[in-house]
């Protein structure tokens, strides 16, 4: 009896320890390899009005992602570009920042009991594989902008289905088949398109009638592993620049992560499902308009 309880407690601790250790290792790696960017004078001069803007963007983007299960990349990238951040710097900053913010989000969702452990474990491995392949191809082979219209069209169709189901009183839950293929595709498209893990995986699972609370919490938790794999690949191939943008997004995201996880507990099923569908349509239409 005590042995089983001890094993369960050790297992529970791993959900905190693993993300914390990975984030610590990443922070040390970045500091060692980019220490010239962290001199006292540069850090002092970096905390200015622009940094506060990046911080606010990080808070807002993480609140959207934490409560609705998607939209961090799209939200933060849109705001960064509107404030004049170069597209290449914006993309790199978002991917690196997500390594930290999704870690904080995963710990927060676990703390507030928003996750289904079995679902998380089923999504992680294929999601990581897809993310690494996508990041590698984007660095050397594929133009990520070229495939965005196809993702946007898919999202609009999927979002319409989700809203219709959200308006129904009773949603019949369907068995979640091919989770590995879904996670692999979501991880691949997230790396290729600069976002898409949440919209693709969360939306598909909710479209099958899964509970929004556990779907969002589980997909966000699995996203930490996917973002970490994708971010490391981008760091190795492209390097890092624009640390103020990254720092603002990271600190803002970490502040907002537990807030988003807390509010997820308070959102009833129907409004959450409809909100996710509307967010998908807005983001997808915006993407199509920008590409016209």
TrEMBL record:
Record keyword Transmembrane helix present: yes
One GO CC annotation: plasma membrane
InterPro entries hit by this protein: TM_pro_TauE-like, TSUP/Inactive_protease-like
Its membrane topology: Multi-pass membrane protein
Keywords on record: Cell membrane, Membrane, Transmembrane, Transmembrane helix
Transmembrane residue ranges: 14-32, 52-72, 119-139, 151-167, 214-237, 243-264, 271-289
Family under the similarity heading: Belongs to the 4-toluene sulfonate uptake permease (TSUP) (TC 2.A.102) family.
Protein name: Probable membrane transporter protein
Organism, scientific name: Arcticibacterium luteifluviistationis
